[in-house]
C-alpha cells in the first residue's frame, strides 16, 4: 500500500496526538479519513493505536461493532499514519449544534449502542480509558444512524493494567492524560488501577452531560490548561450518586450504583445495564425510528 495514492482534501479534526484529514484514493475516488502523527512527537502512539485496530478487526463481530475499519497504517516521511473509513460528525460537534442539550431519547439510543461497543472491546481485552463526546461519532450516509467509537490512542489491554499493580507518578505521561478529562472515572484521578467499569463510569458521565448540558464539576476547569484540576477532582469524587442523578429518571442512579458495586476486574452485566436503559426507553414510549435530535436541524455545520 502506498500512501501517495491518497490525496489530502481537507482537515476534519485534530487532538493531542494527531491531525485528521479527509483524503481521496485517487484510483477509486473513494473518501477516507487519515490520521497523521509527526514522527518527531515526544509520545508517539499512532502505531500502537493501529495495532489495537488490527487486533479488533480480526474478530468476526468487528463488522457490526461500531468501530471504524482501518484500511492501512504505517510510516511515510515525517509522519506515522492510519487510514480509516470516513465517519460523519462527532457527538461533540452535534451536541454544540443542538444547543448543548440532547433529549432523553437520543441519549438512551446512544448509550445502548455504546454499551454494545464497550462490551465488544472489553471482551477482546481492551479498555478505552479516554471516553469523551469527541470520540463518539455517527457514520456517513446509510450509516448516519449508527454510533461509532474512535481514538484508541490511550487504550490499554486490561491484563496489562492489572500487571501495573499500583499507579505511580513515574509512569509515562499517557497515564496522566488518561485522567485529565471531566469524563474520567474517579478512580483514574486518584491513581487506582483501572478496569472495565471505568469506561462504563465515563459513559455514565457522558449521558449526564448530554442530558444536563454540563457536569457539576466542570465549573472553571479548563482541560487544555489543566486549570483548577484539583477542584474538579475534589467535586467529582465527593459527589454522591444521588446528588449527581438528582431530577433524572431513577434508572441513571441505578446505572451508577450497579457499576460502583463491582470490583474493577469483575465481569460486568452489560446486558443488565442495557435492559435498565431499554426499560426506561419503553416506559417513556419512545419509538425506535433512528431519529436523533440532530436530524431536526436543517443545515448541520461541519
Ligand atoms: N474516521 C474519522 N472520520 C471522520 N472524522 C474523524 C475520524 N477520526 C477522527 N475524526 C475527527 O477527528 C477528531 C480527533 O480524532 P482523534 O480523537 O482520533 O484524535 P486525537 O489526536 O487522538 O484526539 P484526543 O486529543 O481527543 O485524544 C475527532 O473528534 C473527529 O472529529
From TrEMBL:
Keywords of this entry: ATP-binding, Nucleotide-binding
Name under which the protein is recorded: Casein kinase I
InterPro entries in UniProt: CK1_Ser-Thr_kinase, Prot_kinase_dom, Protein_kinase_ATP_BS
Record-level Gene Ontology MF annotations: ATP binding; protein kinase activity
Domain of life of the native organism: Eukaryota
Record keyword ATP-binding present: yes
PANTHER family per the UniProt record, alphabetical: CASEIN KINASE-RELATED (PTHR11909)
A Pfam match: Pkinase
Record domain Protein kinase: where: 6-281
Entry binding sites for ATP: 35
SMART domains: S_TKc
Amino acid at each position: 500500500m502506498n500512501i501517495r495514492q491518497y490525496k489530502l482534501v481537507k482537515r476534519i479534526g485534530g487532538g493531542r496526538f494527531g491531525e485528521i484529514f479527509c483524503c481521496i484514493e485517487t484510483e477509486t475516488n473513494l473518501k477516507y479519513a487519515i490520521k497523521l502523527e509527526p514522527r518527531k512527537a515526544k509520545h508517539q502512539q499512532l502505531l500502537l493505536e493501529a495495532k489495537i485496530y488490527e487486533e479488533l478487526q480480526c474478530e468476526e463481530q468487528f463488522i457490526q461493532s461500531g468501530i471504524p475499519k482501518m484500511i492501512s497504517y504505517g510510516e511515510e516521511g515525517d509522519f506515522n499514519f492510519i487510514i480509516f473509513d470516513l465517519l460523519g460528525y462527532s457527538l461533540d460537534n452535534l451536541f454544540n449544534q443542538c444547543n448543548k442539550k440532547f433529549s432523553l431519547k437520543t441519549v438512551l439510543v446512544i448509550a445502548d449502542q455504546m454499551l454494545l461497543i464497550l462490551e465488544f472491546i472489553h471482551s477482546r481485552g481492551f479498555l478505552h480509558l479516554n471516553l469523551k463526546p469527541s470520540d463518539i461519532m455517527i457514520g456517513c450516509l446509510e450509516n448516519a444512524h449508527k454510533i461509532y467509537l474512535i481514538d484508541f490512542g490511550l487504550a490499554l489491554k486490561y491484563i496489562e493494567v492489572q500487571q501495573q499493580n499500583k499507579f505511580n507518578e513515574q509512569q509515562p505521561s499517557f497515564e496522566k492524560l488518561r485522567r485529565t478529562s471531566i469524563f474520567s472515572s474517579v478512580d483514574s484521578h486518584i491513581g487506582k488501577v483501572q478496569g472495565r467499569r471505568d469506561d462504563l463510569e465515563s459513559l455514565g458521565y457522558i449521558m449526564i452531560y448530554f442530558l444536563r448540558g454540563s457536569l457539576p464539576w466542570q465549573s472553571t476547569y479548563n482541560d487544555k490548561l489543566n486549570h483548577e484540576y484539583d477542584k474538579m477532582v475534589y467535586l467529582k469524587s465527593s459527589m454522591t450518586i444521588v446528588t449527581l442523578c438528582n431530577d433524572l429518571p431513577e434508572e441513571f442512579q441505578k446505572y451508577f450504583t450497579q457499576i460502583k458495586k463491582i470490583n474493577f476486574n469483575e465481569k460486568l452485566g452489560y446486558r443488565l445495564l442495557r435492559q435498565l436503559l431499554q426499560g426506561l426507553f419503553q416506559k417513556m414510549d419512545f419509538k425506535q425510528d433512528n431519529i436523533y435530535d440532530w436530524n431536526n436541524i436543517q443545515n448541520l455545520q461541519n
